[in-house]
Amino acid sequence: MKKIVIGITGASGSIYGIRTIEALSHLQVETHVVISPSAIKTIVYETDYTLEQIASISTKVYEHNDIGASISSGSFIVDGMIIAPCSIKTLSSIANSFNDNLITRVADVTLKERRKLVLLLRETPLHLGHIKLMQSVTEMGGIILPPVPSFYHKPRTIDDIVNHSVGKALDQFGIEARLFERWKGLK
């Protein structure tokens, strides 16, 4: 059975993390979830989800400051980690190995163990500092996957757009969630 850690940070777009958990739960993938304090505020502001609802579809939820949690060690085997959304602050912490919370600690462990780390980075426009941070994480083995919508599948709702980005993130782990229609070429 696959095991994925999902970090949700305070960047706008908390629905990306929530939808990732929903999709993985539906596929019976084990999910280990960490939600930052800023993400809690964003979830309340941007969605109708409660923390209890998110916890109910997660295998395990950890406290953001619990650096001693099982997932903070490389000996805890997981397939990788998705941070959705990923704030620039979190990107900066990962790029600089600044492990001051459980999300950044697990991201650092994921990289050192050569496991998949996928960051749905939420920021625009980008300045050179952001780009250098993305370069640094990419050079360490991370995957920067901004939730940029495609339109070939003719999305009709926000859910269609969110599902496409979440599906692309899950593709990185070889997980087919059937969240969007794949490109079949021009007709």
From TrEMBL:
Source species of the chain: Caldalkalibacillus uzonensis
Protein's recorded name: Flavin prenyltransferase UbiX
Family assignment from sequence similarity: Belongs to the UbiX/PAD1 family.
UniProt-annotated binding residues for FMN: G10, A11, S12, S36, S87, I88, K89, T90, R122
Stored HAMAP family: ubiX_pad
Family annotation (InterPro entries): Flavin_trans-like (IPR036551), Flavoprotein (IPR003382), UbiX-like (IPR004507)
Catalysis performed (reactions): dimethylallyl phosphate + FMNH2 = prenylated FMNH2 + phosphate
Claim: Flavoprotein is one of the keywords in the record: yes
Sequence ranges assigned to domain Flavoprotein in this UniProt record: 2-172
UniProt-annotated binding residues for dimethylallyl phosphate: Y152, K168
Principal EC category: transferase
Keyword Lyase set for record: yes
GO molecular function: 4-hydroxy-3-polyprenylbenzoate decarboxylase activity
